[in-house]
Here is the input.
Amino acid sequence: MVTEHDSLLGGYRVLDLTDEKGHLCGKVLGDFGADVIKVEKPGGDPSRNIGPFYKDIPHPEKSLFWFSTNTSKRGITLNIETLDGREILRRLVETADFVVESFQPGYMDDLGLGYSELKKAKPGIIVTSITPFGQTGPYARYQSTDLVGCAMGGLARLLGDLGRPPVRMSCDPQAYLHAGLQGALGSVVAHYHRELTGEGQHVDVSMQEAVTLALMHAVEIYEIMKVNVIGMGQFFVSVRPAPQPPLFTRLIMPCKDGYVFATFGGGGFGGQVQSSRALVEWANEQGMLMEFKDSDFTQWDASTLSQEESDRRWAVFGDFVNTKTRSELYEQAVKRGIMLAPCNTIEDITRNAQLEARGFWEKVEHRELGETITYPGAPLKIKETPWRIQRRAPLIGEHNDEVYGEELGFSREEMAVLKARGVV
Amino acid sequence: MARQVFEGIKVADFTWAAVGPQVGRELAEHGATVVRVESHRRLDPVRTFAPFRDGVPGVNRSAFGTEYNTNKYGISLDLNKPKAQEVARRLVTWADIVGDSMTPGTMARLGLDYGSCRRINPSVIYFSTTQQGQYGPHRDFQGVGHHVNAIAGFSECTGWPDSDPTMVFPAYSDFISPWYLLIAVMGALLRRRKTGEGMYIEQAQLEAGLTFLAPHVLDYMVNKRVVTRGGNRDRYMSPHGVYPCRGADRWVAIAVTNDKQWQRFCNMTGDPEWAGDPRFNSVIGRKENEDELDGLIGEWTKNYTPEQVMTILQDAGVPAGVVQTSEDLLNDPQLKHRQHFRVLDHPEIGPHSYHAPAYRLSQTPCDMKRPAPCLGQHNDYVYKEILGFSDDEIADMLVEGVITTDADAPTKM
Here is the structure.
């Protein structure tokens, strides 16, 4: 049982009414200690139909997507479109500190459950609304999915191969996760303010903006240089001042047993200078890259290098890389301070020695499945108030008894009536 | 102006590149006093990358260098000098929060690790963030966020089945890590109000990034399935993809999530003959004939601009969106409504855009009022008003090179 002494958000309650666009918000708050109650419509949230599934069995209690984005939450069912349901939600809001939702803008207001109404139930309540584009504005009513979110936020344009359509990442969803994490962040900023003043507020999260924050300096490049960054496949494009054409360098290069991401060069970036020197030193030990022995990498000037010369140098460099496996290259990269990394698969990452040594992986019990599943663990480490997965994601209505019965005082008979009426 | 959430909170920001600075930025945007400590002798890498105003490189001319430093004060200090370390300690004593993103061991060598800081400021909240963490066999790995893209698996998962892993332009975990740090830092501040205690927060950006692969980690752990490049395919939805539009290299994303939307999609595309093809009637049928369907849809979309396709389909409740370029984003009416890009006037770059947060607070909106600092821009203010040095002491530090100047910057950038 998590407390306020051994967690960051222990003692605070979150009512989580989100769909897949916002699940991560409640998970983050819960993993940092909050008492998160996932509120689903009777029969379960439709996002339980999103795979992948445990042993590929498509079933609302076996969605690995659901498992992975709803840790640390308890679960109740409630139909807020019924009068009884709304009343129950208001009662729950009185006990809560946060309400998180991802309905279409206006939906909660139409039900009499908008921020101003919920504030009457609990004056200091923080309501976090996660939507594709925000509560208001020309696109507020637009429909979105992960792909559309990545497209409208500018991420898809930056990804993919030269001469082929822009792509989203195939390890989906991503846009939803950005939105959810921004929801958690905004909620805690509001929470900080409330702790100092008692005042709650409405936190209006835009998935589009969340994605736009993940573009690095693409927009800055356009604003200053009037060049749109597009997906360039395995290549990095150095945008250079006119009249220099952009410089293409193939940073994802083949090695003996796969691919690595590697950079070479120097100039003003001290880390890259040292890396190039270290790589050359290693290669020289084997009689390779001899032309770069004693090179002054601080004088490497990507802004004036010709494509031809750059290609020539990188080909020599690539020839050396191609003689080594991913793990040989990575081992030396770590040892010598070379900026090179293997293009790992998910399988590779689960065998990564660093993650293993740091105890990154978390084992979560799934008693109904008769096994323990390994999950990604903490996004950061704190000794006094550690992040922790409090429990696996909830089953449908798993905590109806606890919440409705024990806490709100509904009798079994009353629960039966509510069930029959489709309220829970 | 409404009350600022972090009014009175003080941050000693020793971080550089993208992750650490975004923590200070968000706090500064909501009222904290954030002092960035930099040196002309060892530049923050983002100051050395394009885009430079007018294409002319310069320490203060990169809009990449400014992006993560809105509202901050900036000082120049060569931490390698013992006197500078004393100065830094004075700043640590002043601060509530200390940010570190240097390679592991560096802050300790400078006498500015958590233990040292805690001795002079017992309730300090201190975060350290690096690619792979402060300890472990790979902790000394030299890299930037793009290396983490590769190690975490984002490169492997981006692109097409018949092609190689691809560069993911953004250093992706750099735009996941800071948000977790902020949550922890705010939690630490609140805990300190109750307990008087500080906190040490340690982060490996690889780990933070991996939280965004959670469903696929479970898919591997349970089903031994290894996620890989799939273009724009979705497990369930069809049509689902990116389609060519009228104009040079213009694209629209369309995702039909249910039968009703499929009906409307067919209507809005003018009920073409192929829409009535029984093979496309069911989602399974559409999935089995996806390549052909995508080709046919592309024949329709290519007659329209992406904005037109988006409007036509969204008016019918079908998810569709322009695959926005950076230019599109700067002109996007919804982002304008949100005031996502706020223009601030930088001394050397001139007026240019800074990102606002992704959330809007109804009572305590952020106040983005200062562009990123030029290197050492606020030396006077910080050394005198915050740290209490006299004019003579500051002059001495300049002479000794403890406070660096433009003359100390590298000739080649």
Summary: Residues 13 and 36 of chain B are 5 Å apart (CA to CA). Chain B has a mean pLDDT of 96.
